[in-house]
Write a structure and sequence with these properties.
Number of helices: 11
CATH architecture: 3-Layer(aba) Sandwich
Shape: globular
Strand content: 5-15%
Strand order of the largest sheet: 2-1-3-4-5-6
CATH superfamily: Alpha/Beta hydrolase fold, catalytic domain
Low-confidence stretches: 166-171
Structural class: alpha/beta
Order of helices and strands: HEHHEHEHEHHHHEEHHEEEE
Distance between the termini: 44 Å
C-alpha cells in the first residue's frame, strides 16, 4: 500500500506507521516502470522501525531525483516486548532476517532486469546490505565485475556493533554471570542482541573485513548518535579494490543535531545520499549546491528550511 503523505519529521511518521503498518513511502516499488539505464536503489530499514518511518522523507526525494526506488519491511518477530506493536520490524535475528532481505534484492534484480543495485541502509540495514555481499551472493571477490551491488550508502550504520550508549556493555558484563542474554532478547529482540559489540553476529559480519572488492561505500555518521555508539564505529576502512567515504553530518553545519532517528529527516543527509548515488558525467555539485545551515532537532528532524551554499 502506498500513501501520498510525505512525513517531514520522524516522530509523526513513527506514530503514523504504528497505526498503518502497511504504509509505504511515496514513489517506491514502481515495478512496471522501465529502468531506461538506471540502477535500482533498494532501501533497507533498521531495528524497531519500518520503511515508512525510516524513508518517508528520503524515498520521495530519491524518486523526485529520477531514481527507481524499491523497499519492503523485513525481520518481523513479535516475541520481544519492543517487537509486539504491529508496525515494528527488524527485530528478528540478523542472520535469519538476511534471507528475507536477500530474497527481496534478488527479486528487484530479476523483475527489473538490472544487473546491479545500489543499497541504502539505516542502522541494521547497513549490516544487512553488507551481509548480502558476503552471505547471499551479492559480491564476487574473484570477479568484482560480476558483483550484484554497485554502491552501499549507510546512514548511522551498525557496522561494528554498538555499546548502545553503555547499555550494551552493561548487558555483556551481566551476561558473563549468565543473566542478560535472555532478558535482552525478551525486551529488545534478537536483532538488538546480535548488534552488541563483540557478538557472534558482528564477528560474522566482519570476518572478511569491512569491504568487498569493486563496491563503493559511503557512510554517513552523526556525532550525536546515541544508538550506534561510539559513533566512530560506523566508519568503514577500505580494503582491496574498494572505495570508502566516511562523512560526518556536522562537518559544514554545526546546527545539525541529528541523532540516530532525526538523521533520517535531515536535508543535509538526503543531499549526501543523492550525491553518493549520482552517476552523471559532470560534477554533482556543479548543478546541486551543497546544503548548509538549518537546524535539525534530535528525535525529530529539520526545524527550518535549509540553505544551499552558492557555487563559486
Amino acid at each position: 500500500m502506498k500513501v501520498d503523505a510525505n512525513p517531514a519529521s520522524f516522530l509523526p511518521a513513527f506514530f503514523r506507521s504504528l497505526r498503518h503498518p502497511d504504509w509505504l513511502p511515496e514513489g517506491v516499488n514502481k515495478w512496471d516502470e522501465p529502468l531506461d539505464g538506471r540502477v535500482p536503489v533498494v532501501l533497507i530499514h533498521g531495528t524497531w522501525l519500518n520503511v515508512y518511518n525510516t524513508f518517508g522523507m528520503i524515498a520521495p526525494a530519491l524518486n523526485d531525483a529520477g531514481h527507481a526506488v524499491f523497499t519492503q519491511n523485513y525481520g518481523r518477530d513479535s516475541s520481544s516486548f519492543t517487537g509486539r506493536p504491529s508496525g515494528v520490524f527488524g527485530t528478528a535475528s540478523m542472520l535469519v532476517a538476511q534471507r528475507e532481505v536477500a530474497s527481496f534484492i534478488d527479486a528487484v534484480l530479476e523483475r527489473t532486469g538490472a544487473s546491479q543495485v545500489d543499497l541504502v541502509g539505516h542502522s541494521q540495514g547497513v549490516a544487512q546490505a553488507r551481509l548480502y555481499l558476503t552471505d547471499s551472493g551479492g559480491a564476487n571477490p574473484d570477479d568484482p565485475a560480476k558483483n550484484k551491488v554497485r554502491r552501499i550508502i549507510g546512514i548511522g550504520g551498525s557496522n561494528h556493533g554498538t555499546t548502545l550508549s553503555g547499555v550494551g556493555s552493561l548487558s555483556q558484563r551481566l551476561d558473563k554471570k549468565g543473566r542478560a542474554d535472555g532478558v535482552t532478547a525478551r525486551i529488545l529482540g534478537k536483532a538488538a542482541l546480535d548488534q552488541r559489540v563483540g557478538s557472534d553476529a558482528v564477528k560474522h559480519l566482519n570476518r572478511r573485513g569491512d569491504t568487498e572488492p569493486g563496491v563503493a561505500y559511503t557512510m554517513i555518521c552523526s556525532r550525536f548518535d546515541q544508538i550506534v555508539t561510539p559513533w566512530q564505529t560506523q566508519k568503514l576502512r577500505a580494503g582491496e579494490s574498494a572505495t570508502v567515504k566516511n562523512l560526518l553530518v556536522q562537518t559544514g553545519n554545526i546546527k545539525d543535531y541529528s541523532d540516530h532517528l532525526a538523521i533520517l529527516y535531515s536535508p543535509r543527509v538526503i543531499d549526501m545520499v543523492l550525491e553518493a548515488l549520482y552517476s552523471g558525467e559532470d560534477d554533482y555539485r556543479e548543478t546541486h549546491p551543497r546544503i548548509t545551515g538549518g537546524w535539525v532537532v534530535p528525535g525529530f528532524g529539520q526545524a527550518q528550511r535549509p540553505r544551499r551554499r552558492p557555487r563559486g
